[in-house]
């Protein structure tokens, strides 16, 4: 045998006899325990999370505003309870509420009825009107066509109120005026109290919270779409959702009327 071949065969034999001890491998049934507990020196998980999370935002002023509103309403109720006379509702021509208040106040003074007619109020609220995509805050009547009057009802005081220009009568049973109870008066005057509290609040969000969204659109109005894939198309309003600032309108596409769901800002009135 060649010496070189003998050396090669010896090496192969040595390699065949080599054993590598890997120890005992865990079987499928073996329990492998991993200790994930923290030592005393480790930082608790809660503290680690608190360092990575964003800091808590301070509580909003909604609760404070609600408290202020509740206090204002309670003060209103207390003030009403302390006043003499009954509250009545008089019906007026629509849009003449403030004029009736002025005229009635003047008549009470000129006719020496101040001891019987004590106070007149036009309940109001602050709202946001959307006209031609322009938002504007205005004050409007809560009860269009109605005015509150606190008075002692007599034949003379009734005649003074009834004969005031633009007054069409008292709200009641037939010719007999029916006074409001305290809860009804508070309910009618609450919107103006809420508006006053919101106006005194420092943040714009507080002011916007109590506002009511309205729009000068009406069902049947013709509008033009000014934004979106149907821009330039004329449509007719069929539904209005003031709370969601959306409307549904019919447009003619390929000879067929198709309803579209649009936002107020996507349309403008035609004409």
TrEMBL record:
<dbReference type="InterPro" id="IPR006645">
    <property type="entry name" value="NGN-like_dom"/>
</dbReference>
<feature type="domain" description="KOW">
    <location>
        <begin position="216"/>
        <end position="243"/>
    </location>
</feature>
<dbReference type="InterPro" id="IPR043425">
    <property type="entry name" value="NusG-like"/>
</dbReference>
<dbReference type="GO" id="GO:0005829">
    <property type="term" value="C:cytosol"/>
</dbReference>
<feature type="domain" description="NusG-like N-terminal">
    <location>
        <begin position="84"/>
        <end position="192"/>
    </location>
</feature>
<dbReference type="GO" id="GO:0006353">
    <property type="term" value="P:DNA-templated transcription termination"/>
</dbReference>
<keyword id="KW-0805">Transcription regulation</keyword>
<keyword id="KW-0889">Transcription antitermination</keyword>
<protein>
    <recommendedName>
        <fullName>Transcription termination/antitermination protein NusG</fullName>
    </recommendedName>
</protein>
<dbReference type="InterPro" id="IPR036735">
    <property type="entry name" value="NGN_dom_sf"/>
</dbReference>
<dbReference type="InterPro" id="IPR014722">
    <property type="entry name" value="Rib_uL2_dom2"/>
</dbReference>
<dbReference type="InterPro" id="IPR008991">
    <property type="entry name" value="Translation_prot_SH3-like_sf"/>
</dbReference>
<dbReference type="GO" id="GO:0006412">
    <property type="term" value="P:translation"/>
</dbReference>
<dbReference type="GO" id="GO:0003735">
    <property type="term" value="F:structural constituent of ribosome"/>
</dbReference>
<dbReference type="InterPro" id="IPR005824">
    <property type="entry name" value="KOW"/>
</dbReference>
<keyword id="KW-0806">Transcription termination</keyword>
<dbReference type="GO" id="GO:0032784">
    <property type="term" value="P:regulation of DNA-templated transcription elongation"/>
</dbReference>
<dbReference type="Pfam" id="PF02357">
    <property type="entry name" value="NusG"/>
</dbReference>
<dbReference type="GO" id="GO:0031564">
    <property type="term" value="P:transcription antitermination"/>
</dbReference>
<dbReference type="GO" id="GO:0006354">
    <property type="term" value="P:DNA-templated transcription elongation"/>
</dbReference>
<comment type="similarity">
    <text>Belongs to the NusG family.</text>
</comment>
<comment type="function">
    <text>Participates in transcription elongation, termination and antitermination.</text>
</comment>
<dbReference type="GO" id="GO:0005840">
    <property type="term" value="C:ribosome"/>
</dbReference>
<keyword id="KW-0804">Transcription</keyword>
<dbReference type="InterPro" id="IPR005825">
    <property type="entry name" value="Ribosomal_uL24_CS"/>
</dbReference>
<dbReference type="InterPro" id="IPR047050">
    <property type="entry name" value="NGN"/>
</dbReference>
<dbReference type="InterPro" id="IPR001062">
    <property type="entry name" value="Transcrpt_antiterm_NusG"/>
</dbReference>
């Amino acid at each position: 045998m060649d010496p070189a071949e003998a050396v090669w065969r010896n090496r192969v034999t040595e390699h065949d006899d080599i054993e590598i001890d890997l120890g005992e491998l865990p079987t499928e049934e073996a329990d492998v325990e991993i200790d994930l507990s923290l030592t005393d020196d480790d930082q608790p998980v809660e503290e680690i999370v608190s360092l990575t999370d964003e800091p808590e935002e301070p509580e909003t002023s909604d609760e404070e505003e609600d408290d202020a509103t509740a206090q204002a309403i309670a003060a209103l109720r207390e003030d009403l309870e302390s006043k003499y006379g009954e509250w009545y509702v008089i019906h007026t021509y629509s849009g003449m509420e403030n004029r009736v208040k002025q005229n009635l106040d003047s008549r009470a003074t000129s006719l020496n009825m101040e001891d019987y007619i004590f106070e007149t109020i036009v309940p109001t609220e602050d709202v946001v009107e959307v006209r031609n995509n322009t938002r504007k805050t205005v004050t409007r009547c809560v009860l269009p066509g109605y005015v509150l009057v606190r008075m002692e009802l007599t034949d003379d005081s009734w005649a003074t109120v009834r004969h005031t220009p633009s007054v069409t009568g008292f709200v009641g049973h037939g010719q007999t005026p029916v006074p409001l109870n305290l809860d009804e008066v508070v309910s009618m005057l609450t919107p103006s109290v809420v508006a006053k509290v919101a106006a005194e609040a420092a943040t714009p969000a507080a002011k916007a919270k109590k506002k009511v969204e309205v729009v000068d659109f009406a069902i049947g109005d013709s509008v033009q779409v000014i934004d979106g894939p149907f821009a330039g198309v004329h449509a007719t309003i069929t539904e209005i959702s003031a709370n969601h600032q959306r409307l549904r309108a019919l447009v003619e596409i390929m000879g067929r009327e198709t309803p579209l769901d649009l936002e107020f800002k996507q349309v403008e009135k035609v004409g």
